[in-house]
Amino acid sequence: MSMKNGICPKCEARAVHLFSGTGAELSIRLGPFSAAGVVYYVCTSCGYVELFVEDREKLPRIAEKYPKVG
Predict the structure, then answer these.
(1) pTM over the 0.85 mark
(2) CB-based contacts of 42: which residues, under 8 Å, 6+ apart?
(3) Is residue 70 part of a domain?
(4) Of 4, 8, 29, 64, which has the fewest beta carbons less than 10 angstroms from its beta carbon?
């Protein structure tokens, strides 16, 4: 279950808010002049947060640049 539907998967509250922007804290650096923007879904009831890359076309570059877990 994702918070993108407006419901928190942790506490089931309908208190999910979207936060996005253009600052460095809202991106994954891919190179000197390239970054993948990130959006935050925040539950204002329990504080749970989910992050998603805005531009799915940048996912292969992220997979290339950063190590896989596991």
Answers:
(1) no
(2) 16, 17, 18, 19, 48, 49
(3) no
(4) 64
